[in-house]
Amino acid sequence: MNNKDGFLEKYVEQFDISGKIEKVTPQGNGHINDTFLVIADDGGKNANTYFKR
After folding, report:
1. What pTM does this model have?
2. Is 35 helix (H, G, I), strand (E, B) or coil?
3. Which one of 6, 9, 11, 40 is most buried, by most CB atoms within 10 A?
């Protein structure tokens, strides 16, 4: 899945993520599911979250 026009960031913003979303990156090559790592800055500490689609 590509991130054309910031689609992944817009998708992730719909969830209650602590802090400011800094980066969303695809992880691995799932056969059925797509996995993404969301990196957010929550007051100086990194709050990493994984999403599956």
Report:
1. 0.68
2. strand
3. 40
- State how far the alpha carbon of 42 is from the alpha carbons of 4, 5, 20, 45, 48, in Å: 26, 24, 6, 5, 10
Q: With contact defined as beta carbons under 8 Å apart, do 26 and 38 qualify?
A: no
CA distance between the termini of the chain: 10
| 5-51: pLDDT as tens digits | 677 777 778 888 888 888 888 888 777 888 889 888 888 777 788 88
9-23 burial: b if 16+ Cβ within 10 Å, else e: eeebeeeeeeeebee
